[in-house]
Structure formats: structure tokens, C-alpha cells
Design a protein that fits this description.
By secondary structure, this protein is an alpha/beta fold. The protein contains 14 helices and 12 strands. Strands 1, 2, 3, 4, 5, 8, 9, 10, 11 and 12 form a 10-stranded mixed β-sheet that branches. The protein has a two-stranded antiparallel ribbon with strand order 6-7. Bound molecules: zinc ion (ZN).
Length: 346
């Protein structure tokens, strides 16, 4: 990974010289282009699906990003309390990390909150929901947040015994009054909104009606559009210009989850690679065809999973090397730069 080290040094020098991180990215891209045989090894990467727990120190995240060649990272705090949820992150924490390391973190207004696990609240927004909407709007209005989410809508439960961590079974309709209110805020403040929803047969129509409800709301459908098939993703992307797919945790290495039919296999789950770092042909064709609609992510939701952060990025570089140079560059960082830059803010 010598090339990555060179790229990180360029970035570090750029920061020392007071260049913006984007300028540093351009410098490293030029470096990548000078090695056409292995462009993916040195591409700057923006991690578009990454979480934040209370016990994830900023310096540790920066060290991992630097060693893996990740120039910027989304931070989606997990407000979940309790030993087995391992969260207790907060928007304030994400914002303070972004201020401490300018240009490196993209804080989202968090969607992983215990109060959003209740289905009734989505269908009939109560006082708690109204308060939350006010808070979300206030934070988005500040201009300090780059997105909204991850909103957990259809999620399979899991236990990770060795790390004593868990995730809940969640089954909420996608297109609800509260979701529409979030979508309107995302559109008004020009930030994307990340939604976790396994693309099961009754989930997809809800996603379609949400995308049609407010075409100005840019929706990032997490984990390869809910682990849909290439054919289904193609149809959705063709029909809905406001839809984007993040490939969070879709690498198929032993440490990954969603890239591995995890936590359980269903007929609605389609993977993107064969387990050796080779993209399936239909997914590869999809990325080439819709090269401006996909972003990458590691999705380290539980703190112990930081151990595999670098391995996840290494696998992303391997997968990117199977794509044309232009598409690899778009997935690695250009699409994320566009998605997370608010019009008029840069
Ligand atoms: Zn997710």
C-alpha cells in the first residue's frame, strides 16, 4: 500500500500548506492518473456510509482514514443506548469532530434514534415527532450538516455475540407522513437523506411513492438500494432521477455483514461481488451505465468493527480496479462530492 501512503502524505502536505481538502484530492487524483495500471490503489475515497458512536474517538477515525486513503467521511451518529447497542453518539459529537478536523468529516443529522423505532410515530406524528422535526430543521438550517439519516425502516435483527452488540428487527412502511416531512426538509435544505430498507416486495412500492412524492428530495437508498437485483436497481434509477444507491458494507469479506447475506438470507437479497473482489457482471454493467448514482461506504456501525476498517477499504479498491477509470473515480469520490455539496455553498 505504498501508493496510498504517498497519497496520504500529499493530503497531509496539502493540509499543512493550508490547501482545501478538495485541492489535495485533485493533487492525489493527478497522482492516480499518472499510474494508469493501478488507478484504484491511489484514488481518494469518500466514505459515504459511516456511523459514529460515543466511544469512537476522532483521532482514531482520522488515523484509520489516513492509513486507508479516505479523504472524507460521513458521520451518522447512533443515539441508541444500552450495552448491546453500543451507540450513544450524537449530532453534537459529529459536529465537534467536523470542527476539530476541518474538511474531513461530513456530519449528518442522525436518524438512528430510539424514538424512531416506533411504527405509530411514523404513521401519526405525535408531539415527540414534531419536536424532532423542529430540531432536524434547526440543524439543517445551520448549514453545518451534510445530510439526514440513516433512517432505519426495514431492518433485519442481529446479534454479534463476540462483541455483545445487537440490532433490532424494524418493519415500518417507507412512505409515511413523518417520512414525507423528513423528505421535505431534505429537499428544502438541499441535503440527501439516507434510508435503510431491505428491498422486500412490499417495501419497494413504498420507496417508489416516496421518490415520486417529492422529486426534489434526493434519497440515498443504503446498501445497494436495499440489496436489490441489478435489474431492479436499473429500473428504479431510470425512473427516479432523485434516487442514489450507497454500497455501504457491500464488500464480501469475512468481516462484512450486508455483503454476505447477513444476518439472514432471503430471496430479496442480491450481492455485488463473488467474495474474491470481483464484481458480478450485471452489477459492474450497472455501475458503468449509471456511474453518477453510486457511492461507497464501510458502514462501521459497532465500534469493534473498526478493526476491519482498512480491510473494507482495501476491498473497495480491489472492486474499483475492475471498473473503467472514470467510473472508479466517480464511485470513489466524485459522486459523493456532488451529493454532499449544497448548491451555492461552494
Ligand atoms: Zn444501514
Amino acid at each position: 500500500m505504498g501508493c496510498v501512503r504517498v497519497m496520504v502524505s500529499v493530503l497531509a502536505i496539502g493540509l499543512v500548506l493550508g490547501l482545501s481538502s478538495l485541492q489535495a484530492v485533485e493533487t492525489s487524483s493527478a497522482l492516480a492518473q499518472s499510474k494508469p495500471s493501478q488507478p484504484a490503489a491511489t484514488l481518494p475515497i469518500i466514505n459515504a456510509h459511516m456511523h459514529l458512536n460515543k466511544n469512537m474517538p476522532a483521532a482514531q477515525l482520522i488515523a484509520l482514514m489516513d492509513s486507508a486513503g479516505v479523504t472524507q467521511s460521513v458521520l451518522m451518529a447512533r443515539y441508541y443506548r444500552g450495552d448491546r447497542s453500543g451507540g450513544e453518539g450524537s449530532d453534537e459529537q459529529a459536529l465537534s469532530y467536523a470542527k476539530q478536523y476541518p474538511g474531513r468529516f461530513l456530519p449528518f443529522v442522525a436518524g438512528q434514534r430510539p424514538e424512531l423505532l416506533e411504527q405509530k410515530r411514523w404513521l401519526e406524528p405525535d408531539e415527540v415527532a414534531k419536536k424532532l422535526l423542529e430540531q432536524v430543521e434547526e440543524r439543517l438550517r445551520s448549514g453545518e450538516f451534510s445530510g439526514l439519516g440513516e433512517l432505519i425502516i426495514r431492518h433485519h435483527s442481529y446479534m454479534i455475540p463476540q462483541a455483545a452488540q445487537m440490532g433490532s428487527e424494524v418493519d415500518i412502511p417507507v412512505d409515511t407522513p413523518l417520512m414525507r416531512a423528513f423528505a421535505d426538509l431534505a429537499a428544502r435544505y438541499q441535503v440527501p437523506m439516507t434510508i435503510h430498507a431491505e428491498a422486500e416486495p412490499r417495501v419497494v412500492p413504498g420507496m417508489v411513492s416516496l421518490l415520486e412524492y417529492n422529486p426534489k428530495a434526493r434519497i440515498i437508498w443504503a446498501h445497494s438500494c436495499g440489496r436489490s437485483s441489478a435489474k431492479a436497481i436499473r429500473e428504479m434509477l431510470t425512473r427516479h432521477p432523485n434516487l442514489f444507491c450507497d454500497l455501504g458494507d457491500m464488500t464480501r469479506i469475512p468481516a462484512s455483514g450486508y455483503g454476505n447475506y447477513w444476518p439472514r438470507q432471503t430471496p430479496s437479497i442480491f450481492l455485488i461481488e463473488d467474495g474474491t473482489g470481483r464484481l458480478y457482471d450485471d452489477m459492474k454493467a450497472l455501475y458503468e451505465e449509471f456511474s453518477d448514482r453510486f457511492v461507497l461506504g464501510t458502514d462501521n456501525a459497532h465500534t469493534p468493527s473498526l478493526r476491519s476498517y482498512e480491510a473494507r477499504i482495501r476491498r473497495w479498491r480491489q472492486l474499483l480496479s475492475g471498473l473503467s477509470a472514470g467510473t472508479a473515480r466517480r464511485l470513489a469520490h466524485l459522486n459523493a462530492e456532488q451529493l454532499f455539496t449544497r448548491k451555492g455553498s461552494k
